Amino acid sequence: MNKLTSLFALFLLLQGNLNVFAKTSFSDSLMVKVQSFYRHRPDKKPGRSLMLYFKNAPLKGKGTVTLQSNSIKELLPIDGKNGIDSLNVLLPAGLGVKTDCQLKIVVNQSNKVLERSVKVPALRQWTVYIYPHSHVDIGYTNTQENVETIHKRNIFEGMELAKKTATYPEGARYLWNPEVLWPVERLFSKASPQAKQKVIDAVKKGYLQLDASYVNTNTSVAVDEELFEFLEHSKDFEKLTGKKIETFVQVDVPGMTWGLVPVASQLGIKYIMAFNNGFDRVGRSMDLMSFRPFWWKSIDGKSKVLFLQPGSYSPGAAAKGFDYWPKMAGQIDSTKLMKVVRTDTPRKHFIDKYLADMLPKLQKADYYPYDIFAMSWAMADNMPIDADLPEAVKSWNEEYAYPHLVIAGATTIMKKFEEKYGNQLPVLSGDYTEYWTDGLGTAAKQTGMNKSTKERLIQDETLWAMLHPGEPAPRADLKEAWRNVSLGTEHTWCYMDPSKQPITNDILNVKFGYFQKGEDISKDLMQRALAPVAKNESEIVGVFNTLSWNRSQLVKLSKEQSGRYNSVKNESGKTVLSQKLSTGELVFMAENVPALGSKNFMLSEEKNNASGMLAHDNVLDNGSIKVVLDPQTGDISSLTKGANEFVDAKAACSINSYRYLKSSDTLNRVSGTSNVKISILENGPLLASILVESAAEGSNSLSRTITLVKDQPYVDIKNNLDKQSITKKEGVHFGFAFNIPQPETMVDIPWGIMKIDNDQLDGANRNWIGFQRWLDVSNKEKGVTMCSLDAPVFEVGDLTADILGGAANSPKWIKKLTPSATIYSWALNNHWHTNFPLSQEGKLEFRYRLLPHNTAYDAGMANRFGMEQSQPLIVSPLKQKISQKPLLSLSDNPKVLLSILKVDESGKKMEVRLRSVSDKDEQVKVNWLEMKPTSIQIDNKAIGKGKNPMETEVLVPAKGMITLVADFIR
After folding, report:
1. In angstroms, rounded to a whole number, what is the distance separating the alpha carbons of residues 567 and 723?
2. Which of 546, 545, 570, 541 has the alpha carbon at shortest distance from 558?
3. CA distances from 204 to 157, 198, 201, 294, 499 (A)
4. Cα–Cα distance, 677 to 45 (Å, whole number)
5. pLDDT tens for residues 395-443?
6. In 3D, which of 422, 372, 317, 386 has the Cα closest to residue 129?
7. How far apart are CA 353 and CA 628, in angstroms?
8. What per-residue confidence (pLDDT) applies to 941?
9. pLDDT surpassing 70 at residue 12
10. CA 632 – CA 676 distance, rounded (Å)
């Protein structure tokens, strides 16, 4: 190439380079990246951050950058003395915040010009509230004792870190959230007065933030009063600290009962914040409930709480905690447990990735128009605190204006939502039916124990009020019993790897101890309640009714109580219908036992001359209903009341049909019974029972006892399994196919009645449903009310509880339930892969009561039936006849009932809680009979004053409740 040619080529090259700076051809030379955060401008205002990249060559020398959007224009100086290939610039304050903006960028340097227009999408000025905690799994990663040690230590470590960072900038000041009250309550049960005072002072200063839940539990299978006992721990700590506890926090467990809302509202709890598990068996709860804050309206349509599920509790664990978790999990030597997580690089494993993923998604989501973002920061289950957090937040906030980080407690987060968006949030009604109630079926024996214990404790309270007027109630023992009930229902059962021994059995034995202790205390309390009137081996027996209406019910005396006696007489000396059973037990009908009162009966050695038989071959007929058993299957093939047949002969099961469901990779997954043998067990004038014995896959044997009582309108069913220990995935279901066309299914849940599907939130579980005492399947002409006294979970229409493993995004999760009159009681399973026992074995009992009715559904009738089966008449031998006058009476309204009578520790105050299942407000008269209160309060307002108020008239809201506090101080 000659010199001329070379000069020409150089000219063209230079000309090309100059064209890079020409206004019409610089798009490839200036690249702009809009950042997803704001930085601090020199004027201390937040400005959107943009990165400018100079691609072909570094920019050298001084120049300017002009940023212009419509009428807003800003000139920024550049000094590229050493050459720069990128430049961070901040937009004028307010640009790109609420709306997209078109931005013109002009770079000037001498006679060189770069120009680019870009669209800056709107970016909210996010405030990110970080909730520091350690997930409380009482067991799972370690023994209960070590878990308690970890969480109590976290309280003190958290308080000290809060004290050290108290002068840090706003947002970076540390505080600790124990998540639930169990660690604090355990600390107070054993700590010195000085340690307790230190905790109280920390709460007052805000270093320690207390929330209302005692443990993370399965609330969908609670009974009404259990929820009050569960949340009463928060009231205890309010009294101790003088600080209100306004937020119920739940972590891990997906879903919760709708009944929490009225209870929380009555106790002054205004908010619910729930961090989901995020993956394992959460169904549709993450997708449809996360980041959708709403006002959760109570069943009564009046009270409400603010609900927020801010995703899962895993971001801290995913970013950082799982690096340390293996050092803690399974480490049973408490001296080797880490005390804190602390590093030299607090920002290294922080929230950057999580925010980069979540905030853009929510920015685009039509359901989240808010600039508040709440998130969990936990190092995982039962882990130490992250001592890096305040340093990381401080550093972040110095670098970025937004997202602005704030270390916060749950109430602060919820109040911010309420203050800023409260009047914009949707109002929803419905049950957030839980997903993890299936875990209860992995220990069916203990689950049944807890159901009975709960009901017995309610009766203990009422019976004490009836028989110990003016005496202090054993509140400490009652509280301890309820505490063990809560620990039984708490969502943790055994080690995360259930196959690992001995740690699995060590944890499981402690867990089972909670059930046993709760039962033992409840039984002891009943004996103590009866002590003033009881005497063993007496021929006088008293029958006590703890419910608020007169009732008649079969009463059974044990073999030891019955002894030599063969019949029963009433107070007038008239023989009542009774029957000595083949077991040596004596049963009789206690008729018209007064509400909250008692009746005396006399045992007699005289033979019962009554005759008659209610059973013939495979048929039971008591004059009210008729039952026919299928000789091939042992199922109830016919159930009639009058002219109506209640068994659907076309369904996949009959009534009380055993169904064994094997894992989904097994052929012939569903099996029933074989080798059926039917025999008459009892056959008398009062009671008849047919025993069905059979082989049943998964068990050594199955026996089903079907009983009718003379003139009584219900069927009593007892199913006894001798369960084999099987670790392959399995489930036992009992099917009930009712012949009810166009059915509606109503379900008794804590403090309310739920219509299947209609009264469930979108993210609620529809594959299996937990309930309290009863469900009712009816149409306008007939129906069946069904009680399950041991198994609290059922399916609608089919065996839909066949989902194994984590089941994330499984298509099997039901979106909408089709009305069906077929109900399956899900008695037991081992479907979980973690946390729950791999198998169960031994003798298990599942009791059911069926009330067919030739009328439409009646909430009052169904609820009374459910309560009568769950809280039966109490019988005791007596020192002498008693003439106990009922404490009080309610005007006879089947839709309003007494839930409980509770005497305080002084014996001078009594809570009277009334529940309504009516669709309208009900005016109810409470008549005080035995004791006359000096004053009565409701909702902290006096409604009855004077020397001896005899009668209190109260308005019980539709589907609601009220609590009266009667004061008997003289």
Report:
1. 37
2. 541
3. 17, 10, 5, 30, 45
4. 84
5. 999 999 999 999 999 999 999 999 999 999 999 999 999 999 999 999 9
6. 372
7. 65
8. 58
9. no
10. 6
827, amino acid identity = A
Q: How confident is the model at residue 18 (pLDDT cuts 50, 70, 90)?
A: very low
Over the chain, what is the mean pLDDT? 93
Compute the chain's Rg from CA coordinates. Answer: 34
* DSSP-derived pairing of the beta strands 793-796 and 769-770: antiparallel
Q: Which of 291, 220, 211 is nearest to 251 (CA)?
A: 211
pLDDT tens profile 699-722: 999 999 999 999 999 999 999 999
What are the strands of the beta sheet with 372-377, ordered from one edge?
A: 372-377, 127-132, 404-407
With contact defined as beta carbons under 8 Å apart, do 368 and 358 qualify? no
Find where tokens 């063993």 sit.
536
Bridge partners, 289 (sequence order): none
**Whole-angstrom distance, CA of residue 605 vs CA of residue 516:** 37
d(CA 181, CA 247): 12
Report the alpha-carbon distance of residue 149 to residue 871 in Å, rounded: 39
* pLDDT the model gives residue 586: 96
Bond from prior residue into 390 cis (ω within 30 degrees of 0): no
Strand partners for 721: 702, 844
CA atoms 913, 916, 921, 926: torsion sign: negative
Phi, psi of 14 (to 5 degrees): -60, -40
Number of Cα atoms under 13 Å in the Cβ half of residue 643: 1
Residue 939: left (phi > 0), alpha (psi -120 to 50), or beta? left
Structure tokens at 965: 């506090």
Q: How many Cβ atoms are within 10 Å of 326's Cβ, its own excluded?
A: 10
Task: Using the predicted structure, report yes or no on whether residue 26 has a pLDDT greater than 90.
Answer: no
Burial of residue 764 (number of CB atoms within 10 Å: 0-12, 13-18, 19+):
buried
Backbone angles phi, psi at 696, to 5 degrees: -150, 125
Q: How would you write 591-618 as a 3-class SS string?
A: EEECCCCEEEEEEECCCCCCCCCCEECC
Q: What is the mean pLDDT of residues 188-204?
A: 96
Task: Locate 585 and state its tokens.
Answer: 């037990």
pLDDT at 942: 57
Residues 884 and 788: beta-carbon distance below 8 Å: no
Q: Tell me the DSSP string of 411-449.
A: HHHHHHHHHHHTTTS-EE-SBB--SGGGGGGGGHHHHHH
The whole-angstrom separation of Cα 475 and Cα 325 is 40
941/964 Cα distance (integer angstroms): 10
How would you classify residue 498: left for phi > 0, otherwise alpha for psi between -120 and 50, otherwise beta? alpha
Enter the DSSP assignment of 563.
Answer: T
The reported pLDDT for the residue numbered 639 is: 98
pLDDT in tens, 883-901: 878 889 998 899 999 999 9
Q: Which helix (H) or strand (E) holds 822?
A: strand 822-829
Q: Nearest Cα to 598, choosing from 480, 710, 467?
A: 467
- The Cα–Cα gap between 565 and 12 comes to 122
**CB contact set of 373 (below 8 Å; sequence gap of 6+):** 126, 127, 128, 129, 310, 355, 358, 359, 362, 403
733 or 56, which is more confident? 733
